[in-house]
């Protein structure tokens, strides 16, 4: 009889990846379905990055590297933290891992024991609670509703922290809501963290460069330099440089934690792909101008999608300041009936209805811990987005 570990039993497969797989299956069957579930930019990896990878292969950079990253890549990351965030991490305070998810996984598995609590604001990125549970910890959620623009208040954070809290996970701009914290809001979060010296903060800045707010992006360690030894600043190449397939994530943090992450990685993946590391070195050190052009394109789509979804009966879509997702509140659809007589009693039922009747695939809010809502990724062409939003409008209008 097959045996699976208790740790494996504590986790679920990723809901976003599951929906994307469902879309792929439907498309293979010839169904005209529009997938808005994937969490990756539709842009291509920049050519100068690809060229760097090809050059690395030709130069024979095809062997093991140092476990937690080449010196060249760590230098590029150090330069990135200085340039973008005003942070000066030493090379022994930087780790490179197989994607940002792996960075978070390593950090949590290296530090969380059974009984430890990890505070996670909801709506949250789907993997946080599962990784915490895998590590044996207990996720503690804070609900940040649409009315509060999907951002937690300092008072909510203060209440969620207990003597058992090991980490607070903080993600701005957020997947799935796109909510981004202002410098002043970060200061107020830092003030709470300051009062609880046993708590560490996992600051997930993965969407730093997908940004539309009229204030500049900042990260917690930059706003609160006195807390820098209690913060792991997590970032990666996936979203900014359209490098999801290359699998490079990284973090800056206290040397003891960086060392622990390296120890764990040395007994699991060893180094991230040497060629991907060369590509990441080029991405972080190369021209950054194209980020603005991509943001301008994303922003146009965001504006269209927000406007069209707000025109759909029953939906209320706040305007996100970053990332490439919107997270409409669907309270106005719950309790209504579909033309075939089914009652929409949850956001999951709503998403099934969208898929079955409108052939549009989004991800239900339950997967992100805040219902009723759903996530739409607008990392796809304007024409496709427009058609998808028309279909959602029609599906919502058909509810009674
Ligand atoms: N953090 C957030 C908030 C994300 O949305 C993602 C990817 O979807 C990641 C981290 C991990 O990115 P990757 O492992 O692809 O580098």
From TrEMBL:
Q: What is its EC number?
A: 2.6.1.-
Enzymatic reactions: L-aspartate + 2-oxoglutarate = oxaloacetate + L-glutamate
Q: Which residues form the Aminotransferase class I/classII large domain?
A: 32-392
Q: Please list the cofactors this protein needs.
A: pyridoxal 5'-phosphate
The superkingdom of the source organism is Bacteria
If you read the UniProt record, what top EC class would you report for this enzyme, in one word? transferase
For this UniProt entry, the molecular function terms from Gene Ontology, in alphabetical order, are: L-aspartate:2-oxoglutarate aminotransferase activity; pyridoxal phosphate binding
Q: Which InterPro entries match?
A: Aminotransferase_I/II_large, AspAT/PAT-like, NHTrfase_class1_PyrdxlP-BS, PyrdxlP-dep_Trfase, PyrdxlP-dep_Trfase_major, PyrdxlP-dep_Trfase_small
- Which Pfam families does UniProt cross-reference here? Aminotran_1_2 (PF00155)
Under SUPFAM superfamilies, the record lists:
PLP-dependent transferases (SSF53383)
Instruction: Give the record's keywords alphabetically.
Output: Aminotransferase, Pyridoxal phosphate, Transferase
Q: Which GO terms describe its biological process?
A: amino acid metabolic process
Family as reported in the entry's similarity comment: Belongs to the class-I pyridoxal-phosphate-dependent aminotransferase family.
Q: How does it assemble?
A: Homodimer.
Protein name as catalogued? Aminotransferase
Q: Print the organism lineage.
A: Bacteria, Pseudomonadati, Pseudomonadota, Alphaproteobacteria, Sphingomonadales
């Amino acid at each position: 009889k097959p045996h699976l570990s208790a740790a494996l039993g504590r986790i679920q497969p990723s809901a976003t990846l599951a929906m994307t797989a469902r879309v792929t299956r439907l498309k293979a069957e010839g169904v005209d379905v529009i997938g808005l579930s994937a969490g990756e930019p539709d842009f291509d990896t920049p050519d100068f990055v690809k060229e760097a990878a090809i050059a690395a292969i030709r130069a024979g950079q095809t062997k093991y590297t140092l476990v937690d990253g080449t010196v060249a890549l760590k230098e590029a990351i150090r330069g990135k933290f200085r340039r973008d965030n005003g942070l000066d991490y030493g090379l022994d305070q930087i780790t490179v891992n197989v994607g940002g998810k792996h960075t978070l996984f390593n950090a949590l598995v290296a530090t969380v024991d059974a009984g430890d609590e990890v505070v996670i604001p909801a709506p949250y990125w789907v993997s946080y609670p599962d990784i915490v549970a895998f590590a044996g910890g207990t996720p503690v959620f804070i609900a940040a509703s649409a009315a509060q623009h999907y951002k937690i208040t300092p008072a909510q954070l203060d209440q969620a922290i207990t003597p058992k809290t090991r980490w607070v996970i903080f993600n701005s701009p957020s997947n799935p809501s796109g909510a981004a914290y202002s410098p002043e809001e970060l200061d107020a979060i830092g003030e709470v963290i300051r009062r609880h010296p046993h708590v560490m903060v996992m600051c997930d800045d993965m969407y730093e460069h997908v940004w539309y707010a009229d204030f500049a992006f900042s990260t917690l360690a930059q706003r609160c330099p006195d807390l820098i030894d209690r913060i792991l600043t997590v970032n990666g190449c996936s979203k900014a440089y359209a490098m999801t397939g290359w699998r490079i994530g990284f973090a800056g943090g206290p040397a003891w934690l960086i060392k622990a992450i390296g120890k764990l990685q040395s007994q699991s993946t060893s180094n991230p792909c040497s060629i991907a590391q060369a590509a990441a070195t080029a991405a972080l050190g190369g021209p950054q101008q194209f980020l603005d052009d991509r943001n301008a394109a994303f922003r146009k789509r965001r504006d269209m999608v927000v406007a069209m979804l707000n025109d759909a009966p029953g939906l209320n879509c706040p305007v996100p300041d970053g990332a490439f997702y919107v997270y409409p509140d669907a309270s106005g659809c719950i309790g209504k009936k579909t033309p075939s007589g089914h009652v929409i009693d949850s956001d999951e039922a709503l998403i099934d209805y969208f898929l079955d009747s409108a052939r549009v695939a989004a991800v239900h809010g339950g997967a992100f811990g805040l219902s009723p809502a759903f996530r739409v990724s607008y990392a796809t062409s304007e024409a496709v987005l427009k058609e998808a939003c028309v279909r959602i409008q029609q599906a919502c209008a058909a509810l009674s």
